[in-house]
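Progress report, Aim 2. The chain analyzed during this reporting quarter is listed below.
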Amino acid sequence: MKTNILHLKHLFALLLSTLTFVACSSDNNELTTPADPDTSAADSVRFTAIFGVKNPETRALTDPGDGTLTASWQVNEQISIVYGGEKYIATVTAVDGAGSATVTATLPGDIPNNQAVTFIYPSSAADGSGLRSDLLANQDGTLATLSSRFDVSTAEGKIVRDGHTAQPNGTVTLKNQFAICKFQFKDEHDKLISTITKVTITDLSTTEVITVRTHSPQSAVYVAMKPSKNSMKFEVDNCIGIYQKTSNANLEAGLFYQPTLTTSYSRISPRTIPLTFEAKESVRVTFNNQGQSINLQYSLNGGELTDCSAGVTLDLDEPGEKVSFYGDNTSFSKSGIDNMFTLAGSGYIYGNIMSLLESSTFATATELKADAVFFQLFRDQTALYSHPTNELVLPATTLTSQCYYNMFLSCRNLTKAPDLPATTLAQQCYFSMFSHCINLTKAPDLPATTLADQCYARMFDGCTNLTKAPDLPATTLANLCYIRMFNGCTSLNSIKCLATDIPLTACTSGWLDGVAATGTFTKAASMTSWPTGVSGIPEGWTVVNE
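Predicted structure tokens for the chain:
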């Protein structure tokens, strides 16, 4: 198959302390009238068109590593046709030897002649109003994900109807909406940072933020970005440290950039901070041993380590006083016992929970090794507050049964949840983890694609201030995996669930009972068997296909 190459004219020039983005131009992609459109049933209209090959950045991308992107249409790729508050799917059914794609769609039988429409590629970038407002969220830094979800092109056009067939009215030109960037970063010693786990990019003029979280450490991240001539701030996390760079940008839509930015060390990563409690006003922190074999030390205000394996009570009387904990344990709790930590007063929590398990290597630890390892560790701790800037870190990617069961149940002053990066879950791993956290407004990302029995059961039950659910990308559900997951979330009005295989109705039993009366439910376009109601898609909610 013939492919097209998008060439990079110029990389980056370093002038004083600023870095300017420069790129090349590209051709357009044309949508043209086919010779012989297909026919369809009387109650629908068959739309057919040909997409040409002139705009390589609008199709599936590969990077040969020579400063170019290679692109070609692929059979079964999808394009949205949007009008009248709805979107309709056009599918690539064939690609000829020259690289042109035939696309077809079935449109409603009442579509008027010369109907104005918007064409959007890929289909997942569209909703009934046009481009989705959250398009640049949830990027993972890979070219494959960027190509399928974030390499977005649009065009305005009209559809000519002839009986039960239709075609575009003349030539329609798809134009790319975002710039594509391949970022690499060097530290202050000119050494390539090869273990990137997160990149945060802030437009300093608009304050818009793009956060890229990688599934595994990477040396380069691919990012889709809006066109901009503003100054950008980059924060690069490689587990051990945070590196920063501020650079002037000159980004144009539809172009490919591959800069290497030299950063400077800014601050340590949240992963390198041990589990810490800090006085918001004043707080009493108590560790209860509960008769277990526990190894634990504490450091008061950064001082020397003191053993507290048998238990300890510490009074932090002044705002800013803090205590950090270090331990070497396989497990730190177990099913059926009372809290290991209790707080009285008001205190912040932040740092890496793994410091309770691996005192010297917690910054890179990602594996839990015992069931119920943090079982209801902070349950009912109403004195516990989210810190305004420091993060609570739960970095484990290898989970165990009941590992976070009831961990923050009824912690009503917790406002933001820590990231949960695991992609493969364990039985009841997040059961009631944030239930009745009534002031929780920011849920964690939930990237898991392999679920387990009751893994998310009651996870956000009663979180009355939560308005948007985390995206749920798993396509195959497990027994009771979502049961009562958002039960009683009275403000919840947005959810995306891409499940296509729901083996038992109990998988979603009562999962949206008591949510807002109206909202938006985004589902996989191929999924046509969602039930309605509290165990499926709530009645009164708008359904959007992706």
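The CA atoms of residues 335 and 544 lie 41 Å apart. The chain has four domains: 4-176, 183-267, 269-364+378-389, 415-546. These observations will guide the mutagenesis work planned for the next reporting period.
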